[in-house]
Amino acid sequence: MPSPSTNRKVRARALRKPETMARITASVYTSHVPAIGAALDLGKSAEPYWQPVFAGYEFSKQWLKANRPDIIFLVYNDHATAFSLDMIPTFAIGTAAEFAVADEGFGQRPVPKVMGHPELASHIAHSVIQQDFDLTIVNRMAVDHGLTVPLSLMCGALDPVKDAWPCPVIPFAVNVVQYPVPSGQRCFALGQAIRRAVESYDTDLKVQIWGTGGMSHQLQGARAGLINRAWDNAWLDQMIADPQACAATPHIDYVREAGSEGIELVMWLIARGAMSDVNPDAINSGAAHAHSVGVRHRFYHVPASNTAVGHLILENP
Description:
This protein is α/β, with parallel strands linked by helices. It has a single domain, classed as LigB-like (Protocatechuate 4,5-dioxygenase, Chain B), CATH 3.40.830.10. The chain contains twelve helices and ten strands. The strands form two sheets. Strands 6-3-7-2-8-1-10-9 form an eight-stranded mixed sheet, with helices on both faces. A hairpin with a 7-residue loop joins strand 9 (294-301) and strand 10 (309-315). Helix 2 crosses helix 6.
C-alpha cells in the first residue's frame, strides 16, 4: 500500500498545470531546384514555363500564413558552399543566431538573411546526440539554395532589406552529395529522435519540420535529364501511408529509379519520422493508426529545369 507521503505526491502532480512543451505541428516537403529561385528573383514566375510550378504553391503560401509556426526546422543539403570535400559532415545542425545567404557563384540571392534559434537548436543537438546520433554542431555557416528556395516557395518574394522570413529557422544539413550517404532508415529514425528532442523542450512553441530536395532527377552523365513520374508518385504514396516501409527503400533503388540526385529524398524521411503517427510511444501503445496525419496539400509537376518537383504538407492531429 502506498504511504501517505506517496499519495500526497501523486495528488500534487495531478493538481499541477500541464507542463508546457514545444511540439511539431506539421511537416512540409518540397524540391529545392536552384532555377526556381532564379525564376522568382528575376521576375519570371508568371512566364508560361514557370507559372504551373508556382501555382502549385499558392495554397501553401496561404496555409503557412494561417498556420504560422514559431520555428521551422529545415532539413536540406549543402551544395559545396558551407562544406566541401575537405570536411563532409553526415548530419550538421546550425546553432547560430543568424545565417548569411551564400554566394553560389552568381552573387547572393536577393532574400532576407535567415535568423536562427540557438536555444532550441542547442537543445535538439544535446538531446539527439544523447540518443546516439552523431551531429556536427555549426556555429557559423552560410546557407544556399537548398534552404532558401523552399522558404521562397512557401513565403513568396520578399525584399532582402525591408522584409523577413516569418519565423526563425534551424538549418539541418544532410550529406547526400558525397558517398557514403545516410540510409533512409537512419534518416527516419533520426526524425523520431528529433521529435523526442523537440517535445522535451519546456517552452510552448509550435515547430514545423521541413524535408527538402528531390524528386527524381539526374544532372550529369548518360542519364542526365532522367525523370520518373510513376516512381516518384508511388514513393509519395508509400511515404504518406507506410513510412516505415518507405524508409527501407535501398540506395540502389533511388539511383536506378530516381537518378543520381534522387537520393535527396531520404531527407524527406527525416521530416516524416518526426510526425506523430510514427512516434515510437504511440506505436508501442497500439494507438498509432488512431492518430494518423492529415494530408493538407499534394502537388507534383515536371519539369522544372530537368527536375521533377514534388510538394506535400502533412499535419499532426
